User: Fold these one by one.
Assistant:
Number 1:
Amino acid sequence: MKIVKLEDLHADMGWRPISFLKITTDEGLTGWAEYAENFGAGGVTELIHKFAGVVQGLDPREVGKITSSLQAITRLAAGGLNNQAIAAIENACLDIKAKALGVPVYALFGGPFRTRLPVYWSHCGSFRVRFADLFEKWGKPRIETLDDLTALGKEAVSRGFSAIKTNPLYVDGGKLKMFEGGFRLHPQLLERNIDGKFIGAITDMLAAYRDGLGLRAGLMLDINFNQRTEGFVRIARALEPFDLTWFEIDMHDPAALAHVRNASRVPITSLESIHGLKGYRPYFEQGAVDVAVVDVPWNGLWESVRIATLADAYEVNVAPHNFYGDLASIMSAHFCAAIPNFRIMELEVDDVPWKSEFVTLPPVVENGQFVVPTGPGWGTEVNEEAVRARPWKPR
């Protein structure tokens, strides 16, 4: 069996594109992967095109050999977009290999350890605040007040979710807004300085959610890169009364992240932006996280399983970074089913109403649990007709 063609397809997912890689073989088998082309200036697709000349003619079932070969030729610029393009090829090849064997992808790694996965509602409230006009057009009520957050917490519990995760929201002009510091153009982008007003807004928000969730449901806060070490420590200490499942932050300094973890009683989660086994190692050596987040589309499922194995050696649980489309959710589900040290799976609940059109067998979520597909490969295919019917138009 040989790889004969690589194709990229893109569709509209509201405020961002959704991207797919299709690999075709000379025996008629095809493999699919979802990947991310909506960070910074993009470029993953162009790299996939460059790597196509390397992998065409190779046997897609030799997944490790293909990944290692591509890593070798990009060693001088390891990680980043190169890593993400390699991961897309790896994931599509895993789909082909599992289909050729007639087994689910998780079976290639000794799974399933479990067939149902607890999920949490990611960006709960925060995306409805940030993209209020879009969600209102799609029939979702606006989230404008702290009382609205309390009501949303009650809704999450009523729908069976055992946990939710949100981002910093603050009241401005009588309405909630989402703080963007650390990612996008914003007055506090460069300094990332903390103040009491910002901490107070976070604690007010979490108090509103906790009122709606009750004491048993999990509550998580993700503030990404928007503070430096001092700010993360001060926020973590302010969060202690809320019994968070975790406080999620992003840092590229293992020692500084370990300091934040040791400075409060709040569990710390991180590492979604780290690439590769070697990238994760110093964080485990420093004891920097309670839960390690791994992005399957960024790292590839084979590499992600290796990262989870290393985490297991340090008694650390793993959770997937998954705020993508349905195929990526299914890919992440196979990862969660293939490892012993799984914690909980991220899931985008608020999304475009046509999200499930892009796959032939959409995910099944029952009472807050993701049902792992059992068909060959990922257990679903990309609906090319639906993808082409909704072309992405950059905004």
Number 2:
Amino acid sequence: MISRVLVPMDESEMAERALRFALEAHPDAEIIVLHVVGQPSSMMGGAAGLALADDTEEAAREQASDLFERAHEIAAESGTEIKTDVMVGHPARAVVNASGEFDTVVIGSHSGSLADRLLVGNIAEKIVRGSAAPVTVVR
């Protein structure tokens, strides 16, 4: 029986589909939505703010707040409560490292643009190959 499900999410429609699938397929499980914010760097888009923050963890939570709000809205549609977590690091590596604490991982196959599909598709592949738990890839 599956009791703990990890759903890594970014801002993509495919990530939302993955969450909806997890909620439907595992209605009695504890579902944890994980958002991974990139390593702090002055050259790296959204992670640039982390490099300047006094409290990196708090800055990462703030960056993830809109995404977590959306995840809670999706869960509420199913009448389900979810938990959220944020990590700082490389997305694939962070999910693979966390996967051992879960019975399964549910991820979206890719994001919207071609560049996102190549990057996130590559991340999904790395998670499938490295996860300690079975992985479901949602399209």
Number 3:
Amino acid sequence: MTLCLNHPTLGYYTTRTVFGKEGDFVTSPEISQVFGELLAIWYVTQWLAQGSPKRVRVVELGPGRGTLLADILRTFRALPQPSRPPISSIHLVEQSDQLKRVQKARLVETGFGETPVEWHADVAAVPQSEDEFTILIAHEFFDALPIHIFENTQKGWREVLSPLTLNVDTTLGAPPRSASSPSSPAPSAARAAPPASTPGGAGSLTAQRFARLPIGSRIEVSPSSWEVARDTARLVGGPAGGAGLVVDYGDAKAFGRSWRGFRKHQVVDPLTEPGHTDLTANVDFSYLAESMSEFASTHGPLPQSRFLTSLGLQPRLAGLLRGASTDERRKEIESAAKRLVYHGGMGSQYKVMAVTPKGAKDVFPFDLVE
């Protein structure tokens, strides 16, 4: 997955336009500015709750075209001075040189062209800060991190593989062909049970969840996600405080058959056309929360619809509708906002998890009773 998505010259994210109508998928920030504005309001509430530190840095994992970052920064700038986080630096976890240029241009357009910006190959390279409050954004980032698929068999957990059969008659020039689908276990695929081999150890909460699964169950496990989540928790739980949001599709549970490919807004076989296909899997938020627990507190996840409506989606939408110049524009704004909270789509499929320094309680809107 990592090679197919991030190879410098052949990777999916590094060689093409992947976002928007002209790409393969559309994200919430691309649909409506309201999404970024409401996330910004949540960050402000946490910054204020932690004493309004005088220096604030923004750390975003996988900023894409910089749309979400720009909406958040623009919202900060529009707030009155006492409620405006003073942005002292920006750190972006990005590997694509093409997207780095797009992100830089977006920062200039937003009025933050002079703010110190650093790009990092991975979140582990983002330095710990002694005096900057950390605003951390991870929107549709963890779903693209590599997974392993395991099946519980009569002989214990075994990794599900998809072997390739090579044509040894090279004179025919035939390409390698798949000998099995991604859901078919290879006969020789004997691997250690995931509770013993995944981060957290055999006594972890993750191991306990997996131990209860019946024979025939499958799970998708992402050790890379575990490491990235721990690194993000270190940043948020640092000495200067912080607040993070992880927004992705998934739930507080493990998935077994969610790995898929996206191409031209359609779900496709993830093993076809490597480098031309977005590869993704649902996020296990319980797994992320366990990995973060040493350094930070987590809250949620909440469905995206509940998170956005609790933070004032309807009043903000009403304001945008009043300011729309035409009936057609009003319909576009209303349709986009409804798409963000539609219970049969983004509103329920996407979840939001908050990350705060250890011990934080009553974090709105995660503290609201159902």
Number 4:
Amino acid sequence: MAVNKESFIQGFVPHHTHGSVDYTAIANGHVHQCLDVTHPPILTPDGGHIHYTEGYVVFEDGHTHSYKAYSSPAIPVGNGMHVHYYDFYTSVDDGHQHHVSGVDQPAPGTI
């Protein structure tokens, strides 16, 4: 069975990832774009899953920042898809850090 963005998938889809495109909060007079793809799912004891991610925000104002974070558990959004909430801070570079929060792109599966 082929799985695509129109597929209705009940339950868990192994090895899926989520992408996101967001901006950091303003700090030191600027923002950075944050382009991300998560690692595959990490199963949780309650039968759900979360995702780990790490990377760098886009170079801006002469520097960049790194981040390492875990998502919330899956949030069903209908049509056999789910998302995850994220909320983290970047590393401190150039004397400041940035807050990043939001929801990633939907992926197949209801949990």
